[in-house]
Amino acid sequence: MNQKNSLGLNSCFMDLDDPLELFKIWMSEAEKKEINDPNALSLATSNRKNEPSVRMILLKGLSQEGFDFYTNLNSPKSDDLKKNPKASMCFHWKSLQRQVRVSGSVTQINDKEADVYFNSRPYESRIGAWASDQSKIMNKREELLKKIDELKKKYQENNKMPRPQNWSGWRLKPSSFEFWLGDKYRIHERLRYNKVLNRWKKEILYP
Question: Catalytic residue positions?
Answer without folding.
Answer: 186
